Amino acid sequence: MPAPYSTAKNTHYGKFATTSRLVSCLVSEGLVNAYYCSCTPRQDENGAIKGLTLLMRLHGATNKIQLSSARPISLENDILAVIPQRGVPELDKESKVLVNGVQCYKIDLADPWDMLPHIYSPEISYNNTTPATLPDSESIYRQVIHGLKIMGLQGDISLVDGFDAVQLWQQFAHDYGVTDKLTDLIASELASSMLHQTYTYDYPKPLPTLESSSIQWEQSIVEGHATHPMHKARRSYPPLPPLNPGQVNLETPKLRLLSIPRSSMQLRGEFETLAAPLVDAILEKTGNAKELRQQHAGHVLMPVHEFQIPNVLERFEDASVLPEENNVTAHSLTSIRSVAIPEVLKDLTVKLCIGIKVSSALRTITPYTTYFGPGFSEQVVPRLSYDRKVLTIERELASAVYSHPDTDMAKHCSCVMREAIEYPSNATPNDDTIVVAAALVEKIQKPDTDETLSTHVWNLDTEEKREAFLDRYIELALKAFVPPCLENGVAFEAHGQNTMCRFDKQTGELKGFVIRDFGGVKAHNPTLKETCGVELDVLPDSCVVAHTLEEAYKLLYHTLFHSQLQRLIRVLDMHHNGRGWEMVRKHFSALVPSDHPMYHFFMVQEKVPGKCLIKMKIEELYRDYIYSPVPNMLLSRPQEFVQ
């Protein structure tokens, strides 16, 4: 049964989920200054607040307001938001100021998991109250006001709880000087994220178990990306209809068939052979499969997501779609655009293009990706250095894409056939339970809890159990993904959406990992050629080519360490006590020699390049990344000096 929930709270939590992620990006990317101030609890409160984050306003992109004891700080003019913290963020130990005797530290990296679900905006008012949206609203508000009064920052300004991402973004964008057009566009994506997040809270799923199918685990995602403020955004653009929650079925979509002259298509691998069982099942729906194949002789019959059809027909004059009766029902995976049809297609999943924005990306498939995957799978994957018992690499066996000189056009009509060990043709009751890694750190289908699927399903109800589970996870994850990068210069995009975990169905013990999706791989050709005797076969300007080894290390850090391992360490309560990162350092040091450049990147330098999600949005980038220095979490230790 689904976990119990309260719809009265869900709008508040939907706002918080998106807004806290926006705060995290603004701070961690250095777009605003933020300061952490420890709180001495009021005697009549339970001390839920560990400290306050003061998010500072700025005036122009280069004129950041600095918190300082040299002049009084005005809530009305200088403070963008006030966030009560339940955990200490990553602080710059060398950057601190005293405000009325209270020591405040500049924040280097903010994480939503450390924030209490209350984000306050200053408002001119003489009524120091706040709606009791949550059971702790009044208590938290009193503690926040108490903390601000100690710093002399209160005056006649009260705080309004529930500052949402659109309001925060619009104020920041005005101060920063973002154009009105881009401000409105990003605001609409943030609004979409809050709307869809609330809808997800309103309609919880049954909780998965070790007996659940991989599809059930894939569709158990409640919040998704832990720091991206567009984590739940679902934005469509004409000619596609709006994506309003509950009105478009993205979990069990219909797959239809496109018919396109073979001369207009670029095929890689045995695409038509591999797709044949799926194509036949769709054709058989009208009982005239043979006749339909004859009618479309000389054409490629390619599966297409039903929602993408208007985009294809508008862009490609020689493309036609078979009758609506010719369809099969698919099950979307975590990425939405990849689907499984285990009743029809064994050992494979299908990656389809959908012209909608999910997080930052338009979920189409570029010709760069359709070309790269099959060649990489055939030529490189078999030669890579990795333990086949610990890591399974799901190869991209074949692809199809419309042949068009404009890649931004071609990407709307494409498809990839990918291996899928989780949907085997020879399934047995003793097969491993394969769980998408992102699901492990998800809450149990409600927002007002710290219990996650990992602690619930694996019964991690003691610190000893959590520590044992995490230690094995980190050890095997590093054994899976470090060697290809260390030995061959190949970094997989090993975040939680692309990574799956193999668990013993009877014991629940982690046995290894599965990696999928090669669109975000980074590989250093000189190292690859020296160690494997092959080079990447890519189209010109492909973004998978790493020009230096550091580019591969950056990707591995962002996806494996920052996005995947940090999440599990935090939700298992092994971040602030430092134990999780001790495990990472122990197992990493066992794999990487101390005189190797990779060791220096991960284990020596205090700052590493962090991917800038909001800066990229402001610069309107997707395939080109922007990085900004962030604290190296592998070196993270308990910050006792602020307790």
TrEMBL record:
InterPro entries in the cross-refs: Aerobactin_biosyn_IucA/IucC_N (IPR007310), IucA/IucC-like_C (IPR022770), LucA/IucC-like (IPR037455)
MF terms in GO: acid-amino acid ligase activity
Domain Aerobactin siderophore biosynthesis IucA/IucC-like C-terminal: 468-592
Protein name listed in UniProt: IucC family-domain-containing protein
GO biological process terms on file: siderophore biosynthetic process
Domain Aerobactin siderophore biosynthesis IucA/IucC N-terminal residues, every copy: 215-441
Gene3D superfamilies the record matches: 1.10.510.40
Organism: Phascolomyces articulosus
